[in-house]
Every structure is written in structure tokens, then in C-alpha cells.
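thought: user wants a sequence for this fold. calling inverse folding tool.
action: design(structure=
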């Protein structure tokens, strides 16, 4: 009898499970759309549907669509926000991870995506993007505004650590923003991780975005690295996980904030064109062509000794701006150590300027990473601004007279023969040059 009883009980449990599953609503599944834009291009869209008139149009970064975007999008649907994840790279058949690919994304085509959403009943649209992906995003939004005067469908923009330079800034020169940056008048919310080069200049980009009338909100994320919402799990720190887990609720709150601000029904006036198109910084150590005098530099080392750049006259000096959260900075340090060893005994020094970090953080880093040169701290980023640095690492090479002769935006292999020859050449120059 017990066997029969157990069999009946098992059958009952199975039946009950089937009944409960039939009564339990399933998690909404995504739907694949294909939106046709100009020249017959089909843009793949992963639609996470939600009822209502609100839509988050999520455009990719230069790295393309990330796996975790679907997870965030599903969480947004649970909060009543329909989300479209647009795979522009696949639609245009261009490679990811190359900033140049972003130039292929035409403003009219992005405007067509906005219009396709509007014709599907989405009349409260928020456009979201990351990093340099904000460039085509702004251009597309601007295009739609100009083509649809008297429409207030676009309610706001959500940007993660946007990069909006017209070209990679050259070391020691003022950065130039894209003209469209000054043509924005929609409300904008910026998420800015602190462990990112862009956080050092986020106030400047916020100011530029407000020129056309945009109300800009800025949320700093302490201890979080850029791309926290897109990176694979094994590339995230605890603070990144925490920020990403909170993101669906945070985005729902942001949509509520932006949605309460009256959206403009007209595009902002056109910005004045850039008088001279900036040339992007070249890769590697390049001759420094600026004629201004060397900026001031007086910072304390890890022993609290004040070091002034003028004290190094008569010596060739490499001034390198870096941060502990910057992988390229860490990667170039061993070659800097070896260059210092190679030139030991000669009038040569390396000054590593740590940007924006406190002394405890720098000290902890130096316990784990061997650094055979002097480290100075720039906790308030004053030297970073004075030397017009926009990217870390950025390096300057000064001759014995204290004049900047070479510079690089990005890491340098300091053991490369051409680089060693440059430094040796400066060391061999006559003192009365």
C-alpha cells in the first residue's frame, strides 16, 4: 500500500506543479525586430516589451552590444519601461572596438529608429548610450529634432561616461568638443564612474552640454570603473557589481526625473562651427610643437617632500600622468623602470604624477607594483589641468632647459629603440643649446 500511496502522491505533486506553472505568469521574453532605415539597411533590435508609452532606446558603445544588456532590459520591463537594444554594428557590418566604426552610424538612421518607436505608440522616448557611442547618439537626436518641430516625443538622454571630443586631444592643447554637444536642449543624466579618465573632465563636458539649453544631471559613482554596466562578471569589482545591480531601479528613477522636465518642442539653435578642425593625437611619442612655456609643477612625493619641476633644470625629465585604475599606465611602468635603469648615472629622471587619488590608495598600489622612479601626488587634479591632460597615461619629455620636447597621449614602450634614441639625443645636447 505504501508503494501505491507514494506513487499517487508523486503524481499529485507533478499535477500540482503543472497547474501552478500554468497560473504563474512567465517572464516577458524579448522579441527580435528589424528596423529598415536609409539605403535599405536593416538594423537588428532586441525588443523587451512593456505596456505604456515609455521607451528606452539603448544604442551601443564602440564595443557593440554586451550580453548583460538583456538582463538589465528585462529588469526595466518589470518596472514598466520598454527597452530596445539596437545592434548598429551588425546592421552596418562594421567591426566593434574601433571608434572609427561609429562614423558609419548615420544621424538620419538613428532618427529613423526614434520615429519607428514613435509610430509604435511610444511617445515618451529616452535615448541611452555609453562612452564614445554618445557621439552618433547626439547627432541622431539632433537630426530627429530638426525633422520634427513641434514634437516633444524625446524626453531626455541618459549617458554613461560620455566621450564627446571632436578628436582625441593632443597633449598640452585645449580639447574641442563636437559642435552637436552645444546643440543639445533635452534634459540629460550622466552616470560618471570615478575610475575613468572621463571623470577628470566630466564638469567640462557637462558645461558644454548645457550651452544649448540642456539641464544636465550628474551622478558620480565612487569606486566604480567605466563600463561597469557592460563588462563581463569576471571583469567587475564588488563596487561595480553593486552599481550594476542597482541600475534598473536607478534608471527607473532617472526616467521619472527627466520625464518631469518639460521637453523642448524645437531644436536648439545651431552652434558656431569649429574654426579649425582639430587633428587627433598621433600614437606614440611625438615632437611637441607648442611654443608656450612649461606649465608649473610643484607636488609632494610619497614622503611629503615638495618637488618642483624647476629643481630639475640641467636634467632630462619624463613627466608621466597616471592612475592606479588605468591598465595602460600599469602596462608601461616596467619599461619605464628599465629605461631608468638603462640611464642610471646620467642626468635623467622620471616623475610619475598620480592623478586624483589619495595617498593611501597610491601607497597600497606601490606595495604591489614595482616603481623605480619618483611618484608625486596630484590629489586635486591641478597639475592635470595645468598641463592640459585629457587621457592617462599622458607623457611629456623635457630637455635639460625644462622645455617640453616630446609628448604622448597613451602608453609608450620606453625600451623601443627609437624612444631610447630620443632620450639619449636630448641627453647629448650641449648645455648652451
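)
observation: tool returned 433 residues.
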Amino acid at each position: 500500500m505504501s508503494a501505491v500511496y507514494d506513487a499517487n502522491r508523486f503524481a499529485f505533486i507533478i499535477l500540482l506543479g503543472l497547474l501552478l506553472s500554468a497560473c504563474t505568469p512567465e517572464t516577458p521574453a524579448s522579441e527580435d525586430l528589424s528596423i529598415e532605415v536609409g539605403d535599405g539597411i536593416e538594423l537588428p533590435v532586441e525588443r523587451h516589451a512593456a505596456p505604456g508609452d515609455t521607451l528606452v532606446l539603448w544604442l551601443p558603445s564602440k564595443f557593440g552590444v554586451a550580453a548583460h544588456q538583456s538582463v538589465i532590459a528585462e529588469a526595466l520591463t518589470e518596472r514598466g519601461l520598454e527597452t530596445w537594444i539596437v545592434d548598429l554594428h551588425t546592421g552596418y557590418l562594421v567591426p566593434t572596438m574601433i571608434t572609427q566604426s561609429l562614423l558609419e552610424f548615420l544621424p538620419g538612421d538613428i532618427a529613423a529608429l526614434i520615429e519607428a518607436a514613435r509610430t509604435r505608440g511610444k511617445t515618451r522616448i529616452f535615448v541611452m548610450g555609453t562612452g564614445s557611442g554618445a557621439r552618433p547618439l547626439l547627432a541622431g537626436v539632433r537630426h530627429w529634432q530638426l525633422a520634427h518641430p513641434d514634437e516633444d516625443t524625446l524626453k531626455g538622454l541618459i549617458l554613461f561616461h560620455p566621450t564627446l571630443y571632436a578628436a582625441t586631444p593632443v597633449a598640452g592643447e585645449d580639447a574641442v568638443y563636437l559642435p552637436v554637444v552645444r546643440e543639445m536642449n533635452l534634459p540629460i543624466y550622466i552616470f560618471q564612474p570615478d575610475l575613468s579618465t572621463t571623470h577628470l573632465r566630466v564638469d567640462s563636458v557637462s558645461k558644454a552640454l548645457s550651452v544649448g539649453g540642456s539641464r544636465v544631471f550628474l551622478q558620480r559613482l565612487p569606486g566604480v570603473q567605466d563600463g561597469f554596466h557592460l563588462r563581463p562578471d569576471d571583469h567587475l569589482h564588488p563596487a561595480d557589481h553593486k552599481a550594476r545591480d542597482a541600475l534598473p531601479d536607478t534608471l527607473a528613477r532617472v526616467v521619472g526625473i527627466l520625464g518631469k522636465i518639460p521637453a523642448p518642442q524645437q531644436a536648439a539653435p545651431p552652434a558656431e562651427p569649429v574654426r579649425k578642425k582639430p587633428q587627433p593625437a598621433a600614437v606614440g611619442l611625438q615632437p611637441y610643437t607648442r611654443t608656450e612655456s612649461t606649465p608649473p609643477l610643484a607636488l609632494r612625493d610619497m614622503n611629503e617632500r615638495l618637488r618642483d619641476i624647476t629643481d630639475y633644470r640641467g636634467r632630462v625629465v619624463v613627466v608621466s600622468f597616471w592612475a592606479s585604475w588605468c591598465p595602460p599606465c600599469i602596462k608601461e611602468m616596467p619599461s619605464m623602470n628599465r629605461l631608468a635603469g638603462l640611464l642610471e648615472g646620467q642626468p635623467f629622471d622620471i616623475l610619475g604624477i598620480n592623478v586624483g587619488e589619495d595617498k593611501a590608495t597610491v601607497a597600497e598600489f606601490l606595495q604591489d607594483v614595482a616603481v623605480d622612479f619618483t611618484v608625486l601626488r596630484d590629489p586635486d587634479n591641478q597639475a592635470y589641468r595645468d598641463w592640459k591632460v585629457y587621457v592617462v597615461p599622458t607623457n611629456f619629455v623635457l630637455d635639460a632647459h625644462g622645455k617640453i620636447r616630446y609628448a604622448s597621449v597613451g602608453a609608450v614602450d620606453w625600451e623601443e629603440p627609437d624612444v631610447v634614441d630620443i632620450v639619449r639625443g636630448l641627453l647629448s645636447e650641449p648645455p648652451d643649446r
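thought: summarizing for user.
answer: Here is the designed sequence. Residues 1-28 have pLDDT under 50 and may be disordered.
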